[in-house]
Request: fold
Amino acid sequence: MDWAQLYPAFFAPPAEGAAAPPRVEFADVGCGYGGLLVELAPLFPRTLMLGLEIRVKVSDYVRDRIRALRAAQPGRYDNIACVRTNAMKHLPNFFRKGQVGRSPPRARGSPRLPLAPTISGIPQGSPWRPSCLFGELGGGGTRRAE
Reply:
């Protein structure tokens, strides 16, 4: 994969004795409209992130959005890109083994990671904690003693 086309700011012409080129470390499979990529870009400015989306119009929208963000705020969104692909078929063509970091392990039998209710709907003083979602579950779905 020629990453220089997607991340031109990170891939200058190789200089003699230059360090190894950066590698994509975050992948957002099924990135939708790119909201996660856009939010993470300023938080991890030196980490390359790639959104993978199968829908043509949606991936075109995300690429246009990234182009517009790069033009409006130079240097802030150079670390994100989107590719239209079927990740189920072609994911191994984009990354080497161990190249991409992974999310915390999910509960056994859970088809998806649970969504954290972080935007609204949590009353003040709620006992909700991230560890409730990402703690390890014991047999029968109960939390193990820590």
User: Anything to note?
Assistant: Residues 105-146 form one domain. Residues 136 and 146 are 9 Å apart (CA to CA).
